[in-house]
Amino acid sequence: MSVTFKALSVLLSYPSDDLKAAVGEIREIIASEGILSQDAVAAMQPLLADMEKFDVYELQERFVVLFDRSRTLSLNLFEHVHGESRDRGPAMVDLLETYRAGGFDLVSTELPDHLPILLEFLSNRPMDEAKEMLEDAGHIIAALAERLHRRESNYAAVLAALAEFAGVEASSEMVQELLTVKDDDPEDLEALDDVWEEAEVTFGPDPNAGCPVSRDILANMDIPANTQPAAAMNE
After folding, report:
1. Is the peptide bond before 229 cis (omega within 30 degrees of 0)?
2. Residue 11 is inside which H or E element, if any?
3. How many Å separate Cα 47 from the centre of its chain?
């Protein structure tokens, strides 16, 4: 079990005032728990500083441009390997069943393969299991890190830290294959509409039913309960 994965889960979620308030604790956790290398922790400091420095609306705008308006930077991991193929549905169901077998109830409208949700799940699993699952997704995470680095985004450090933990290098063949896909232009809104015109698949509760509050969002942290991401462990 690792609080670091929970901290990174929150850090990769849509910015909020609660996230800004939690930056100090996130900084302390990633430095003190020892899951990440010292270099990886140091590389994340500019992002943490941005979270403290900039207005929440500016942080949200940056987040949307990166992760919501660029499919090649999607934090939904299966997007990068399955796209809209028939394999995506069964893979999503298998992952959801893995969560349920671990006592993890998805209470979010996000898909099961959303990276912040995966990290929250892994924060409550044995370290060897967490490492194995991140290794499986490591080539996707490393490709995301490289794409973010090319855009000079400080978020690159978070993905790079996860790729390093998983033991995956950007030079690997699988990573390079993913990087052959041309980056989206976040300013091309017409193309974006064409890409996302298909109906959204929802694995969590009805989005019209309200947003359930996460339980135990960050164990042993004083982060307010409505901080993202939205998932919960059964007690």
Report:
1. yes
2. helix 3-11
3. 15
Tell me the domain boundaries of the chain: 3-233
Residue type, 23: V
Q: Which residues pair with 224 in a beta bridge?
A: none
Hey, what are 11's tokens?
């850090």
Among residues 146, 191, 165, 182, which one has the least CA distance to residue 40?
165
Q: Rounded to 5 degrees, what angle do the CA atoms 131, 132, 133 make?
A: 95
Q: What is the pLDDT of residues 5-51, one digit of tens each?
A: 999 999 999 999 999 999 999 999 999 999 999 999 999 999 999 99
CA distance 108 to 231: 6
- Which amino acid, residue 111? L
Predicted TM-score (pTM) above 0.90:
no
Report the distance separating Cα 132 and Cα 216, nearest Å.
24
